[in-house]
């Protein structure tokens, strides 16, 4: 296994973990009663602050 494939594998693992984390956050927000539109609006507002 070359360095390139090792880096690619690590990136894939990080991306998969991030996807799981985002999914968990969205599911928690839904359990709190937020709609997808409210979640999107919140994320858009935070993006503008960055």
Keywords:
single chain, 50 residues, mainly alpha, 0% strand
Rg estimate, integer Å: 16 Å
**Distance from first to last alpha carbon:** 38 Å
Percent helix range = over 70%
Q: What percentage of the residues does DSSP assign to strands (E)?
A: under 5%
User: How many beta strands in the DSSP annotation?
Assistant: 0
In round numbers, the mean pLDDT is: 82
pLDDT below 50 for ≥5 consecutive residues: which ranges?
A: none
Query: Could you say which overall geometry the principal axes of the C-alpha atoms support?
Result: flat
Biggest sheet overview: none
**Which H/E pattern describes the elements?**
HH
Class from helix and strand fractions? mainly alpha
Number of helices: 2
Describe the model.
- By secondary structure, the chain is mainly alpha-helical.
- Helix content is 86%, strand content 0%.
- The chain contains two helices and no strands.
- It has helices at residues 3-31, 36-49.
- The N and C termini lie far apart (38 Å).
């Amino acid at each position: 296994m070359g360095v390139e494939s090792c880096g690619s594998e690590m990136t894939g693992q990080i991306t998969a973990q991030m996807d799981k984390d985002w999914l968990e956050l969205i599911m928690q927000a839904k359990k709190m009663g937020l709609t997808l539109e409210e979640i999107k609006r919140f994320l858009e507002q935070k993006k503008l602050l960055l």
